[in-house]
Protein backbone atom coordinates (compact mmCIF):
# COMPACT_ATOMS: atom_id res chain seq x y z
CA UNK A 1 0.00 0.00 0.00
CA UNK A 2 1.11 3.58 -0.60
CA UNK A 3 2.20 5.64 2.40
CA UNK A 4 -0.44 7.61 4.25
CA UNK A 5 -0.03 11.27 3.24
CA UNK A 6 0.84 14.02 5.66
CA UNK A 7 -1.36 17.00 4.87
CA UNK A 8 0.35 20.36 5.24
CA UNK A 9 -1.39 23.57 6.33
CA UNK A 10 -2.41 26.05 3.65
CA UNK A 11 -1.12 29.52 2.91
CA UNK A 12 -2.53 32.65 4.51
CA UNK A 13 -5.23 34.62 2.68
CA UNK A 14 -4.08 37.56 0.60
CA UNK A 15 -5.84 40.90 0.73
CA UNK A 16 -7.10 40.81 -2.83
CA UNK A 17 -8.38 37.84 -4.74
CA UNK A 18 -7.09 37.61 -8.27
CA UNK A 19 -9.56 37.72 -11.17
CA UNK A 20 -8.27 35.67 -14.08
CA UNK A 21 -8.88 36.49 -17.73
CA UNK A 22 -11.11 33.45 -18.23
CA UNK A 23 -13.48 34.84 -15.57
CA UNK A 24 -12.41 32.38 -12.89
CA UNK A 25 -11.45 33.92 -9.55
CA UNK A 26 -8.40 32.58 -7.79
CA UNK A 27 -9.24 32.59 -4.10
CA UNK A 28 -6.79 32.35 -1.26
CA UNK A 29 -7.63 29.76 1.36
CA UNK A 30 -8.72 30.73 4.84
CA UNK A 31 -8.18 27.35 6.40
CA UNK A 32 -7.27 23.75 5.80
CA UNK A 33 -9.64 21.77 3.56
CA UNK A 34 -7.63 18.67 2.83
CA UNK A 35 -7.85 18.48 -0.93
CA UNK A 36 -4.08 18.72 -1.16
CA UNK A 37 -4.27 15.01 -0.40
CA UNK A 38 -6.11 14.26 -3.66
CA UNK A 39 -2.95 13.01 -5.44
CA UNK A 40 -2.42 10.44 -2.67
CA UNK A 41 -5.93 9.09 -3.21
CA UNK A 42 -5.03 8.57 -6.85
CA UNK A 43 -1.79 6.83 -5.92
CA UNK A 44 -3.58 4.53 -3.46
CA UNK A 45 -6.27 3.63 -5.97
CA UNK A 46 -3.73 2.98 -8.74
CA UNK A 47 -1.62 0.75 -6.48
CA UNK A 48 -4.72 -1.22 -5.51
CA UNK A 49 -5.88 -1.62 -9.09
CA UNK A 50 -2.43 -2.51 -10.37
CA UNK A 51 -0.88 -1.38 -13.62
CA UNK A 52 -0.81 -2.80 -17.07
CA UNK A 53 1.70 -2.30 -19.82
CA UNK A 54 1.72 -3.74 -23.32
CA UNK A 55 4.89 -4.05 -25.35
CA UNK A 56 5.20 -5.06 -28.97
CA UNK A 57 8.61 -6.39 -30.04
CA UNK A 58 9.20 -6.27 -33.77
CA UNK A 59 12.42 -7.65 -35.17
CA UNK A 60 13.92 -10.37 -37.26
CA UNK A 61 14.16 -13.90 -35.89
CA UNK A 62 17.00 -14.34 -33.40
CA UNK A 63 17.75 -10.64 -32.89
CA UNK A 64 17.50 -10.99 -29.13
CA UNK A 65 13.90 -9.88 -28.50
CA UNK A 66 13.10 -12.47 -25.84
CA UNK A 67 16.47 -12.09 -24.14
CA UNK A 68 15.99 -8.33 -23.89
CA UNK A 69 12.51 -8.77 -22.38
CA UNK A 70 13.94 -11.18 -19.81
CA UNK A 71 16.74 -8.74 -19.03
CA UNK A 72 14.34 -5.80 -18.74
CA UNK A 73 12.05 -7.51 -16.27
CA UNK A 74 14.85 -9.53 -14.70
CA UNK A 75 12.88 -12.72 -15.04
CA UNK A 76 12.67 -15.69 -17.32
CA UNK A 77 9.60 -15.21 -19.47
CA UNK A 78 10.31 -18.66 -20.93
CA UNK A 79 9.94 -17.77 -24.57
CA UNK A 80 10.72 -20.52 -27.04
CA UNK A 81 13.01 -19.78 -29.99
CA UNK A 82 11.24 -19.47 -33.35
CA UNK A 83 12.13 -21.28 -36.54
CA UNK A 84 13.21 -19.44 -39.67
CA UNK A 85 10.72 -21.29 -41.83
CA UNK A 86 7.41 -19.49 -41.29
CA UNK A 87 5.53 -18.84 -44.50
CA UNK A 88 4.20 -15.59 -43.06
CA UNK A 89 4.61 -13.32 -40.06
CA UNK A 90 2.64 -14.24 -36.96
CA UNK A 91 2.24 -12.59 -33.58
CA UNK A 92 2.74 -14.38 -30.30
CA UNK A 93 0.93 -12.77 -27.39
CA UNK A 94 1.76 -13.54 -23.80
CA UNK A 95 0.55 -11.89 -20.62
CA UNK A 96 2.41 -12.05 -17.30
CA UNK A 97 1.63 -10.87 -13.79
CA UNK A 98 4.71 -9.28 -12.16
CA UNK A 99 5.07 -7.86 -8.67
CA UNK A 100 7.71 -5.44 -7.39
CA UNK A 101 7.22 -4.56 -3.69
CA UNK A 102 3.49 -3.79 -3.57
CA UNK A 103 3.10 -2.76 -7.15
CA UNK A 104 1.47 -5.26 -9.45
CA UNK A 105 2.06 -5.11 -13.18
CA UNK A 106 0.13 -6.96 -15.83
CA UNK A 107 2.64 -7.15 -18.64
CA UNK A 108 1.69 -8.20 -22.15
CA UNK A 109 4.50 -8.95 -24.55
CA UNK A 110 3.62 -9.37 -28.21
CA UNK A 111 6.42 -10.83 -30.31
CA UNK A 112 6.70 -11.11 -34.05
CA UNK A 113 7.40 -14.65 -35.22
CA UNK A 114 8.99 -15.23 -38.62
CA UNK A 115 9.51 -11.50 -39.26
CA UNK A 116 11.92 -11.01 -42.18
CA UNK A 117 12.14 -14.74 -43.00
CA UNK A 118 10.04 -14.71 -46.16
CA UNK A 119 11.34 -14.21 -49.71
CA UNK A 120 8.65 -11.62 -50.36
CA UNK A 121 8.59 -9.28 -47.39
CA UNK A 122 6.06 -6.82 -48.72
CA UNK A 123 3.21 -8.10 -46.57
CA UNK A 124 5.31 -8.56 -43.40
CA UNK A 125 3.94 -5.47 -41.69
CA UNK A 126 0.30 -6.30 -42.30
CA UNK A 127 -0.24 -8.73 -39.39
CA UNK A 128 1.29 -6.06 -37.11
CA UNK A 129 -1.11 -3.39 -38.35
CA UNK A 130 -3.95 -5.88 -38.11
CA UNK A 131 -3.11 -6.56 -34.48
CA UNK A 132 -2.72 -2.88 -33.52
CA UNK A 133 -6.05 -2.01 -35.15
CA UNK A 134 -7.81 -4.99 -33.60
CA UNK A 135 -6.84 -3.78 -30.11
CA UNK A 136 -8.08 -0.26 -30.90
CA UNK A 137 -11.30 -1.72 -32.28
CA UNK A 138 -11.85 -3.80 -29.12
CA UNK A 139 -11.47 -0.67 -26.97
CA UNK A 140 -13.68 1.33 -29.33
CA UNK A 141 -16.42 -1.32 -29.13
CA UNK A 142 -16.20 -1.29 -25.32
CA UNK A 143 -16.56 2.50 -25.37
CA UNK A 144 -19.69 2.25 -27.52
CA UNK A 145 -21.39 -0.25 -25.22
CA UNK A 146 -24.30 0.98 -23.12
CA UNK A 147 -23.03 -1.02 -20.15
CA UNK A 148 -19.30 -0.40 -20.13
CA UNK A 149 -16.95 -2.19 -17.80
CA UNK A 150 -13.65 -0.34 -17.97
CA UNK A 151 -12.81 -1.25 -14.36
CA UNK A 152 -12.06 -4.90 -15.15
CA UNK A 153 -11.43 -4.31 -18.82
CA UNK A 154 -8.03 -5.56 -19.94
CA UNK A 155 -6.82 -2.78 -22.19
CA UNK A 156 -4.74 -4.58 -24.78
CA UNK A 157 -3.77 -1.53 -26.83
CA UNK A 158 -0.03 -1.54 -27.45
CA UNK A 159 1.74 1.19 -25.49
CA UNK A 160 5.15 0.88 -27.07
CA UNK A 161 6.75 -0.87 -30.00
CA UNK A 162 10.39 -1.80 -29.50
CA UNK A 163 11.73 -2.02 -33.02
CA UNK A 164 14.86 -4.19 -33.18
CA UNK A 165 17.30 -3.06 -35.85
CA UNK A 166 19.83 -5.58 -37.09
CA UNK A 167 23.38 -4.54 -36.02
CA UNK A 168 24.70 -4.32 -39.56
CA UNK A 169 26.39 -0.98 -38.91
CA UNK A 170 25.32 -0.06 -42.42
CA UNK A 171 21.77 1.27 -42.71
CA UNK A 172 18.14 0.37 -42.20
CA UNK A 173 16.78 -2.42 -44.38
CA UNK A 174 13.93 -1.90 -46.84
CA UNK A 175 11.73 -4.04 -44.56
CA UNK A 176 12.51 -1.77 -41.57
CA UNK A 177 11.51 1.35 -43.50
CA UNK A 178 8.38 -0.25 -44.92
CA UNK A 179 7.16 -1.47 -41.54
CA UNK A 180 8.06 1.68 -39.63
CA UNK A 181 6.37 3.88 -42.24
CA UNK A 182 3.18 1.88 -41.90
CA UNK A 183 2.98 1.65 -38.14
CA UNK A 184 4.31 5.01 -36.97
CA UNK A 185 0.84 6.55 -36.73
CA UNK A 186 -0.53 3.63 -34.74
CA UNK A 187 2.00 3.06 -32.00
CA UNK A 188 4.85 4.73 -30.07
CA UNK A 189 8.04 3.45 -31.65
CA UNK A 190 11.34 3.20 -29.79
CA UNK A 191 14.04 2.00 -32.18
CA UNK A 192 16.74 -0.26 -30.75
CA UNK A 193 20.01 -1.45 -32.20
CA UNK A 194 19.93 -5.11 -31.23
CA UNK A 195 23.00 -7.08 -30.07
CA UNK A 196 24.93 -3.83 -29.85
CA UNK A 197 27.92 -5.72 -28.41
CA UNK A 198 28.66 -6.89 -31.95
CA UNK A 199 29.59 -3.37 -33.15
CA UNK A 200 32.43 -1.18 -31.95
CA UNK A 201 31.73 1.98 -29.94
CA UNK A 202 32.68 4.31 -32.81
CA UNK A 203 30.68 2.37 -35.37
CA UNK A 204 27.62 2.51 -33.10
CA UNK A 205 27.69 6.32 -33.07
CA UNK A 206 27.91 6.46 -36.87
CA UNK A 207 25.22 3.81 -37.19
CA UNK A 208 22.90 5.72 -34.81
CA UNK A 209 23.45 8.89 -36.81
CA UNK A 210 22.71 7.11 -40.11
CA UNK A 211 19.55 5.52 -38.73
CA UNK A 212 18.19 8.82 -37.41
CA UNK A 213 18.91 10.50 -40.76
CA UNK A 214 17.16 7.73 -42.63
CA UNK A 215 14.14 7.91 -40.33
CA UNK A 216 13.89 11.68 -40.80
CA UNK A 217 14.36 11.57 -44.57
CA UNK A 218 11.64 8.91 -44.83
CA UNK A 219 9.26 10.93 -42.69
CA UNK A 220 9.03 8.24 -40.00
CA UNK A 221 7.79 9.47 -36.62
CA UNK A 222 9.38 7.76 -33.67
CA UNK A 223 8.44 8.32 -30.04
CA UNK A 224 10.09 11.36 -28.49
CA UNK A 225 10.51 11.39 -24.73
CA UNK A 226 8.40 14.34 -23.58
CA UNK A 227 10.11 17.53 -22.58
CA UNK A 228 7.07 19.49 -21.39
CA UNK A 229 7.26 18.29 -17.80
CA UNK A 230 9.83 20.26 -15.80
CA UNK A 231 10.77 17.29 -13.64
CA UNK A 232 11.74 15.07 -16.55
CA UNK A 233 12.47 17.57 -19.33
CA UNK A 234 16.23 17.58 -18.88
CA UNK A 235 16.74 13.83 -18.70
CA UNK A 236 14.23 13.19 -21.49
CA UNK A 237 15.78 15.67 -23.92
CA UNK A 238 19.19 14.13 -23.21
CA UNK A 239 17.76 10.65 -23.86
CA UNK A 240 16.21 11.77 -27.15
CA UNK A 241 19.76 12.45 -28.31
CA UNK A 242 20.72 8.82 -27.61
CA UNK A 243 18.04 7.28 -29.83
CA UNK A 244 18.14 4.63 -31.21
CA UNK A 245 19.26 2.87 -28.05
CA UNK A 246 22.06 0.38 -28.58
CA UNK A 247 21.04 -2.52 -26.35
CA UNK A 248 22.45 -5.80 -25.17
CA UNK A 249 20.44 -8.50 -23.48
CA UNK A 250 21.76 -11.20 -21.18
CA UNK A 251 20.55 -13.02 -18.09
CA UNK A 252 23.85 -14.65 -17.20
CA UNK A 253 25.94 -13.30 -14.37
CA UNK A 254 29.72 -12.99 -14.54
CA UNK A 255 32.24 -11.93 -11.96
CA UNK A 256 33.75 -8.47 -12.40
CA UNK A 257 36.13 -7.65 -9.60
CA UNK A 258 34.28 -8.66 -6.47
CA UNK A 259 30.78 -8.18 -7.89
CA UNK A 260 28.54 -10.43 -9.90
CA UNK A 261 27.04 -8.52 -12.84
CA UNK A 262 24.81 -9.42 -15.74
CA UNK A 263 26.99 -9.45 -18.78
CA UNK A 264 28.40 -11.25 -21.79
CA UNK A 265 31.83 -12.73 -21.33
CA UNK A 266 34.20 -12.41 -24.28
CA UNK A 267 37.84 -13.51 -24.63
CA UNK A 268 38.87 -9.86 -24.40
CA UNK A 269 36.59 -8.87 -21.51
CA UNK A 270 33.06 -8.57 -20.16
CA UNK A 271 30.25 -6.51 -21.65
CA UNK A 272 28.20 -5.38 -18.67
CA UNK A 273 24.55 -5.00 -19.58
CA UNK A 274 23.88 -2.53 -16.77
CA UNK A 275 26.93 -0.38 -17.42
CA UNK A 276 26.05 2.84 -19.25
CA UNK A 277 29.51 2.99 -20.79
CA UNK A 278 28.97 -0.38 -22.42
CA UNK A 279 25.45 -0.06 -23.83
CA UNK A 280 22.13 1.83 -23.53
CA UNK A 281 20.23 -0.89 -21.67
CA UNK A 282 19.89 1.17 -18.47
CA UNK A 283 18.70 4.18 -20.47
CA UNK A 284 16.04 2.07 -22.15
CA UNK A 285 14.89 0.53 -18.87
CA UNK A 286 14.69 3.88 -17.09
CA UNK A 287 12.88 5.58 -19.93
CA UNK A 288 10.48 2.71 -20.46
CA UNK A 289 9.69 1.56 -16.96
CA UNK A 290 10.51 4.45 -14.63
CA UNK A 291 10.18 7.81 -16.34
CA UNK A 292 7.83 7.57 -19.29
CA UNK A 293 5.50 4.60 -18.81
CA UNK A 294 2.50 6.82 -18.10
CA UNK A 295 3.36 9.12 -20.98
CA UNK A 296 3.57 6.17 -23.36
CA UNK A 297 0.11 5.07 -22.21
CA UNK A 298 -1.22 8.59 -22.48
CA UNK A 299 0.19 9.02 -26.00
CA UNK A 300 -1.36 5.71 -26.99
CA UNK A 301 -4.74 6.96 -25.82
CA UNK A 302 -4.63 10.60 -26.85
CA UNK A 303 -2.73 10.31 -30.11
CA UNK A 304 -2.94 6.87 -31.67
CA UNK A 305 -6.28 5.66 -30.35
CA UNK A 306 -7.78 9.10 -30.85
CA UNK A 307 -6.71 9.00 -34.52
CA UNK A 308 -8.28 5.55 -34.93
CA UNK A 309 -11.48 6.64 -33.17
CA UNK A 310 -11.76 9.84 -35.27
CA UNK A 311 -11.27 7.85 -38.46
CA UNK A 312 -13.89 5.29 -37.43
CA UNK A 313 -16.47 7.89 -36.42
CA UNK A 314 -15.86 9.95 -39.56
CA UNK A 315 -16.25 6.81 -41.64
CA UNK A 316 -19.64 6.19 -40.04
CA UNK A 317 -20.51 9.82 -40.79
CA UNK A 318 -20.10 11.64 -37.47
CA UNK A 319 -18.61 15.13 -37.35
CA UNK A 320 -18.22 17.82 -34.70
CA UNK A 321 -19.39 20.69 -36.92
CA UNK A 322 -22.11 20.91 -39.52
CA UNK A 323 -21.81 22.28 -43.07
CA UNK A 324 -22.28 25.82 -41.69
CA UNK A 325 -19.29 25.26 -39.38
CA UNK A 326 -21.57 25.31 -36.33
CA UNK A 327 -21.19 22.63 -33.65
CA UNK A 328 -23.66 19.80 -33.99
CA UNK A 329 -24.75 17.41 -31.29
CA UNK A 330 -24.52 13.63 -31.40
CA UNK A 331 -28.32 13.50 -31.32
CA UNK A 332 -28.62 15.82 -34.33
CA UNK A 333 -26.13 13.80 -36.35
CA UNK A 334 -27.87 10.61 -35.34
CA UNK A 335 -31.24 11.99 -36.45
CA UNK A 336 -29.79 13.29 -39.73
CA UNK A 337 -28.04 9.99 -40.38
CA UNK A 338 -31.19 8.07 -39.55
CA UNK A 339 -33.21 10.26 -41.93
CA UNK A 340 -30.49 9.90 -44.60
CA UNK A 341 -30.53 6.15 -44.11
CA UNK A 342 -34.32 6.05 -44.25
CA UNK A 343 -34.32 8.17 -47.43
CA UNK A 344 -31.68 5.97 -48.96
CA UNK A 345 -33.71 2.87 -48.12
CA UNK A 346 -36.78 4.48 -49.68
CA UNK A 347 -34.80 5.44 -52.77
CA UNK A 348 -33.37 1.96 -53.10
CA UNK A 349 -36.81 0.42 -52.58
CA UNK A 350 -38.26 2.70 -55.29
CA UNK A 351 -35.39 1.85 -57.59
CA UNK A 352 -35.89 -1.86 -56.98
CA UNK A 353 -39.63 -1.55 -57.56
CA UNK A 354 -39.04 0.38 -60.76
CA UNK A 355 -36.49 -2.18 -61.95
CA UNK A 356 -38.87 -4.99 -61.05
CA UNK A 357 -41.73 -3.38 -62.97
CA UNK A 358 -39.46 -2.81 -65.96
CA UNK A 359 -38.41 -6.45 -65.90
CA UNK A 360 -42.04 -7.56 -65.60
CA UNK A 361 -43.00 -5.35 -68.55
CA UNK A 362 -40.09 -6.63 -70.60
CA UNK A 363 -41.03 -10.19 -69.78
CA UNK A 364 -44.67 -9.48 -70.59
CA UNK A 365 -43.70 -8.14 -74.00
CA UNK A 366 -41.48 -11.17 -74.59
CA UNK A 367 -44.27 -13.51 -73.52
CA UNK A 368 -46.80 -11.70 -75.73
CA UNK A 369 -44.47 -11.91 -78.70
CA UNK A 370 -43.90 -15.59 -78.04
CA UNK A 371 -47.66 -16.15 -77.65
CA UNK A 372 -48.35 -14.33 -80.93
CA UNK A 373 -45.70 -16.34 -82.67
CA UNK A 374 -47.19 -19.56 -81.34
CA UNK A 375 -50.70 -18.42 -82.34
CA UNK A 376 -49.50 -17.62 -85.88
CA UNK A 377 -47.78 -20.96 -86.07
CA UNK A 378 -50.95 -22.66 -84.88
CA UNK A 379 -53.08 -20.78 -87.41
CA UNK A 380 -50.63 -21.64 -90.16
CA UNK A 381 -50.61 -25.32 -89.24
CA UNK A 382 -54.41 -25.29 -88.96
CA UNK A 383 -54.66 -23.80 -92.44
CA UNK A 384 -52.28 -26.38 -93.83
CA UNK A 385 -54.25 -29.11 -92.12
CA UNK A 386 -57.52 -27.80 -93.53
CA UNK A 387 -56.05 -27.62 -97.04
CA UNK A 388 -54.74 -31.14 -96.61
CA UNK A 389 -58.20 -32.28 -95.50
CA UNK A 390 -59.85 -30.66 -98.54
CA UNK A 391 -57.26 -32.26 -100.80
CA UNK A 392 -57.80 -35.64 -99.20
CA UNK A 393 -61.55 -35.24 -99.40
CA UNK A 394 -61.26 -34.46 -103.12
CA UNK A 395 -59.03 -37.46 -103.65
CA UNK A 396 -61.47 -39.65 -101.73
CA UNK A 397 -64.36 -38.35 -103.82
CA UNK A 398 -62.43 -39.03 -107.04
CA UNK A 399 -61.56 -42.49 -105.83
CA UNK A 400 -65.17 -43.23 -105.00
CA UNK A 401 -66.21 -42.05 -108.47
CA UNK A 402 -63.53 -44.24 -110.01
CA UNK A 403 -64.78 -47.17 -107.94
CA UNK A 404 -68.36 -46.56 -109.12
CA UNK A 405 -67.16 -46.37 -112.76
CA UNK A 406 -65.12 -49.47 -112.19
CA UNK A 407 -68.12 -51.34 -110.80
CA UNK A 408 -70.26 -50.11 -113.66
CA UNK A 409 -67.67 -51.24 -116.17
CA UNK A 410 -67.37 -54.52 -114.33
CA UNK A 411 -71.12 -55.05 -114.44
CA UNK A 412 -71.15 -54.16 -118.19
CA UNK A 413 -68.36 -56.62 -118.81
CA UNK A 414 -70.17 -59.34 -116.90
CA UNK A 415 -73.36 -58.78 -118.95
CA UNK A 416 -71.34 -58.86 -122.17
CA UNK A 417 -69.54 -61.97 -120.97
CA UNK A 418 -72.79 -63.76 -120.12
CA UNK A 419 -74.31 -62.70 -123.48
CA UNK A 420 -71.27 -64.07 -125.30
CA UNK A 421 -71.50 -67.34 -123.41
CA UNK A 422 -75.21 -67.57 -124.22
CA UNK A 423 -74.51 -66.93 -127.90
CA UNK A 424 -71.75 -69.54 -127.97
CA UNK A 425 -74.09 -72.07 -126.38
CA UNK A 426 -76.81 -71.26 -128.90
CA UNK A 427 -74.33 -71.77 -131.77
CA UNK A 428 -73.29 -75.12 -130.36
CA UNK A 429 -76.83 -76.17 -129.95
CA UNK A 430 -77.66 -75.18 -133.51
CA UNK A 431 -74.73 -77.12 -134.96
CA UNK A 432 -75.84 -80.21 -133.21
N1 LIG B 1 25.75 -11.08 -28.82
C1 LIG B 1 24.52 -11.02 -28.38
N2 LIG B 1 23.74 -12.10 -28.43
C2 LIG B 1 22.47 -12.02 -27.97
C3 LIG B 1 21.95 -10.82 -27.43
N3 LIG B 1 20.67 -11.04 -27.05
C4 LIG B 1 20.40 -12.32 -27.34
N4 LIG B 1 21.48 -12.91 -27.87
C5 LIG B 1 21.58 -14.28 -28.32
O1 LIG B 1 20.88 -14.42 -29.55
C6 LIG B 1 20.20 -15.65 -29.61
C7 LIG B 1 18.70 -15.41 -29.89
O2 LIG B 1 18.16 -14.70 -28.82
P1 LIG B 1 16.60 -14.62 -28.56
O3 LIG B 1 16.39 -13.72 -27.41
O4 LIG B 1 16.01 -15.97 -28.49
O5 LIG B 1 16.15 -13.92 -29.89
P2 LIG B 1 14.65 -13.67 -30.39
O6 LIG B 1 14.67 -12.44 -31.20
O7 LIG B 1 13.71 -13.72 -29.26
O8 LIG B 1 14.45 -14.94 -31.32
P3 LIG B 1 13.08 -15.54 -31.86
O9 LIG B 1 12.05 -15.41 -30.79
O10 LIG B 1 13.45 -16.95 -32.15
O11 LIG B 1 12.77 -14.73 -33.08
C8 LIG B 1 20.45 -16.34 -28.28
O12 LIG B 1 21.49 -17.26 -28.47
C9 LIG B 1 20.90 -15.23 -27.36
O13 LIG B 1 21.79 -15.66 -26.37
C10 LIG B 1 22.80 -9.69 -27.40
O14 LIG B 1 22.45 -8.61 -26.97
N5 LIG B 1 24.08 -9.85 -27.89
MG1 LIG C 1 11.95 -14.89 -28.97
Automatic annotation (TrEMBL):
<feature type="domain" description="Septin-type G">
    <location>
        <begin position="49"/>
        <end position="315"/>
    </location>
</feature>
<comment type="function">
    <text>Filament-forming cytoskeletal GTPase.</text>
</comment>
<dbReference type="InterPro" id="IPR016491">
    <property type="entry name" value="Septin"/>
</dbReference>
<keyword id="KW-0175">Coiled coil</keyword>
<feature type="coiled-coil region">
    <location>
        <begin position="353"/>
        <end position="409"/>
    </location>
</feature>
<protein>
    <recommendedName>
        <fullName>Septin</fullName>
    </recommendedName>
</protein>
<keyword id="KW-0206">Cytoskeleton</keyword>
<comment type="similarity">
    <text>Belongs to the TRAFAC class TrmE-Era-EngA-EngB-Septin-like GTPase superfamily. Septin GTPase family.</text>
</comment>
<dbReference type="GO" id="GO:0005525">
    <property type="term" value="F:GTP binding"/>
</dbReference>
<dbReference type="InterPro" id="IPR030379">
    <property type="entry name" value="G_SEPTIN_dom"/>
</dbReference>
<keyword id="KW-0342">GTP-binding</keyword>
<dbReference type="InterPro" id="IPR027417">
    <property type="entry name" value="P-loop_NTPase"/>
</dbReference>
<keyword id="KW-0547">Nucleotide-binding</keyword>
<comment type="subunit">
    <text>Septins polymerize into heterooligomeric protein complexes that form filaments.</text>
</comment>
<keyword id="KW-0963">Cytoplasm</keyword>
<dbReference type="Pfam" id="PF00735">
    <property type="entry name" value="Septin"/>
</dbReference>
<dbReference type="GO" id="GO:0005856">
    <property type="term" value="C:cytoskeleton"/>
</dbReference>
